[in-house]
Amino acid sequence: MSAPKKLFIKTYGCQMNVYDSERMAEALGGQGYETTQTPDDADMILLNTCHIREKAAEKVYSELGRMKGLKAANPDLKIGVAGCVAQAEGEEIIKRQPMVDLVVGPQSYHRLPAMEQAVQTGARALDTDFPEDDKFETLKKRAKGKRGPTAFLTVQEGCDKFCAFCVVPYTRGAEVSRPADQVIAEARELVELGVKEITLLGQNVNAYHGHDGGLAGLIWALDKVDGLERIRFTTSHPNDMDDALIEAHGTCDKLMPYLHLPVQSGSDRILKAMNRSHTAESYVRVIERIRAARPDLLLSGDFIVGFPGETDQDFEDTLSLIEAVEYGQAYSFKYSTRPGTPAAEKEQLPEDIKSERLARLQALLSEQQRRVQDRMVGRDVKVLFEKVGREKGQLIGKSEYLHAVFAEADPALLGQVVPVKIVASSANSLQGAVINLP
Length: 438
Ligand code: SAH
Ligand code: SF4
Ligand code: F3S
Prior knowledge:
The chain has helices spanning 15-29, 54-73, 83-96, 112-120, 135-139, 168-171, 180-192, 214-223, 243-251, 268-273, 280-293, 312-325, 351-374; strands spanning 5-11, 33-35, 44-49, 78-82, 102-104, 125-127, 150-154, 156-157, 176-177, 197-201, 230-234, 258-260, 298-305, 329-334, 380-388, 394-398, 404-408, 417-425, 430-434. Strands 2-1-3-4-5-6 form a six-stranded parallel beta sheet, sandwiched between helices. It has a five-stranded mixed barrel with strand order 15-16-17-19-18. A three-stranded parallel beta sheet has the order 7-10-11. The protein is 36% helix and 22% strand. By secondary structure, it is of the alpha/beta class. The longest helix is centred in the last third of the chain and has 24 residues, at 351-374. The radius of gyration is 22 Å and the shape is globular. The structure holds S-adenosyl-L-homocysteine, iron/sulfur cluster and FE3-S4 cluster (F3S). S-adenosyl-L-homocysteine binds at residues 52-53, 165-166, 168, 203-204, 235, 237, 262, 264, 302, 304, 333, 335-336, 338.
């Protein structure tokens, strides 16, 4: 048998890309590829790209530039571009980047084995279709092999919401849900491989309709999977937080008390211009209901500053909403013009205003996050230990609330959910002590 070929995948963007990268590696595993941690000795390099903001997309081209040397040194090296930039600009890439051998979109990567064969004959391959055949049916079972105790599992793809700033409906296509039995089968395979915590993924995961009971129905079905201890989901849209899902936060023990619920802006005028189809008030009401079901829930959000037309008052409204909600985690961005989206046609705000607003917003958010994190000191949490720390005898894991927790612990506890008392809070993590049960 010939030696395995080496595949290096670099992943940009969201968790859905992380999941796709794993699946692409598994698909190419059947072609005799093993993954490698460095591009230097690779036979194939795949860049799994993100198109969400201008800077994210630019990174791909600078990375390709850096790879010229590798290709010169090894003419047999194959270079592929996958993900959302591939979907949006695939044809351009094939035309303008002669060093790229293969371009594959997020909906067609189950065809990678055939594309790889074509590329080996010297051809160049482009596939950015939204095929009728079910990607997940073709991909089938998850590859056996060593893996950590947490895993992502994509259950829903695409978006029909068309927020005025966003490329996702164009790069990922219309909303599609995987059938619940397919998802449950994959969850069981992951659990057999040692996974204890699964994060269900979707661009609008709570619009999931592959189960009669929606996402809540799927969560309750997964609740019955023996050996699966924790369930999370991301990203959800405020308009799709239905009663059953809110209730599950209070009643399903395996569903973790953490929710990422982006609002983008606290100004109704801007929310309308963004085509978000919710108001600041309706968002806050949804949060009140979720917190009534699960009072200790840690809330996370996404914010965009400097959307076209955003006034000082609109921005102040966003700060007020943040004050009212109190986030334990948040992601915030300057608005980035995306070609082909409606907001790109509008008059743009100057860069210095965006920068100034982002700095103020992030200062407020970090203060809140620190406050929420500091309040954990003295509390007992459960930590799923995921890896060994840099200090001797130390393990690192995540609490129910997704805080990173360091603790001195027996390495035998790796991959297990362990009770821990939080003793200190530092910039980005908590320090804990394992509670030794009698
Ligand atoms: N489906 C999710 C988020 C998808 S994109 C949702 O609806 O919430 C992730 C985040 O990137 C968004 O929540 C938004 O805050 C940010 N984002 C998307 N497009 C952007 C743009 N053009 N400029 C800046 N940030 C953007
Ligand atoms: Fe983008 Fe809006 Fe869809 Fe989220 S809901 S993916 S922000 S269009
Ligand atoms: Fe980026 Fe595509 Fe995810 S644009 S954020 S990789 S869906």
